[in-house]
Amino acid sequence: MTAASAPTTVTVALEQLDVVGARPAANRALALTRVRAAFEAGADVVALPELAISGYVVDPGLAASVAEPVDGPTHDAMRALARQYDGLVVYGFCERAGADLFNTVVAVDGNGIALHYRKLHLFDEELGVYAPGDLGLPVVETRWGNLGVCICYDLRFVEVLRALSLRGADLVIAPAAWVGGFDRTVPHAGATRHVDSVLAQANLDQVAVVAVSQVAGASHGGPATLGGSVACDAYGELLAGPLSRTEADSALVTVDLAAVRGAQHRSATIRPREDRRTDVYSLAYGGDSW
Q: In angstroms, rounded to a whole number, what is the distance separating the alpha carbons of residues 161 and 202?
């Protein structure tokens, strides 16, 4: 596909799942059903939560029992759907790599793994289960723009979205299992402070963000996952959400890639990227700096 014929928009499905910990077969079946429905509804890209297949497991033995390799059964099933519908699926799972377990997200298209990411910033009890991410912050060129990913707690570190945006990401998908513990209080309904962070950073970094959380984990004896998934444009304006705080939910949004790139020039004299004082400060990543 040439640049001239590449789509200027991407339709993304947010599939907020009610995931049960340590039941990978049931979670996988649910995820595949929701992915198929999202593609049938017109999605180009389907985004699932963090640890959507394994469930949010923070017991080392239990996590080891539900882990799978990056090219395991979930990959094979998602690849088949992505190939059938000519789309892309982004999902989280517990990855086994040698003796290590990782909190991992992959983007899979009909050819296989397009992007592989391991969570950099482990949250709370995750520190006793998962190895720290070692694949950096990848950005991949796709048919639907330049895609980056991060996971949940990563969004609380402003360098993450800034680095992804400066490296060329148009759209960042952030699978999550949002819980309390970082903020002093958590609202009972509506947007959480996680959402405040996403909207502000999307605007400041001129990147569209889709953040898809698990929900209702406490009803299965797991953590009280908060739901409230959102999608926003590169001005931090909501495209969808917050989704339900208590139940499984979904949404379909269209991201205008030209508008994302245009957000870097808000007027003749307001140019957020060019206005950065790189003579005074910079962000370094992988030997490059901006």
A: 8
Domains and CATH numbers, the chain: 9-289 (3.60.110.10)
Tokens 């059964």 belong to residue: 73
What Cα–Cα distance (Å) separates residue 117 from each residue in 9, 104, 108, 133, 281? 24, 6, 12, 8, 27
| Polymer length in residues for the chain | 290
So what's the pLDDT on residue 7?
79
- The type of residue at 105 is V
| Mean local confidence (pLDDT), 170-179 | 98
H helix or E strand, kind and range, residue 10: strand 9-16
Q: Name the nearest CA neighbour of 216 among 225, 208, 207.
A: 225
C-alpha dist (Å) from residue 226 to 33, 51, 53: 22, 14, 18
**pTM summary value:** 0.96
Cα angle, residue 48 at apex, residues 33 and 241 outer, rounded to 5°? 105
Reply yes or no: is the peptide bond before residue 272 cis, omega within 30 of 0.
no
In sequence order, what are the residues at sequence separation of 6 or more whose Cβ sits closer than 8 angstroms to the Cβ of residue 68? 24, 53, 74, 93, 94, 95, 96
Dist CA 209 CA 198 (whole Å):
7
The 10s digit of each residue's pLDDT in 260-277 is 999 999 999 999 999 999
- pLDDT bin (cut points 50, 70, 90) of residue 3 is very low
In angstroms, the CA 201 to CA 209 distance is: 9
Q: Is the pLDDT of residue 103 over 60?
A: yes
Which one, of 286, 260, 273, lies nearest residue 137 by Cα?
Answer: 286
Residue type, 225: T
CA angle 65, 70, 73 (to 5 degrees): 70
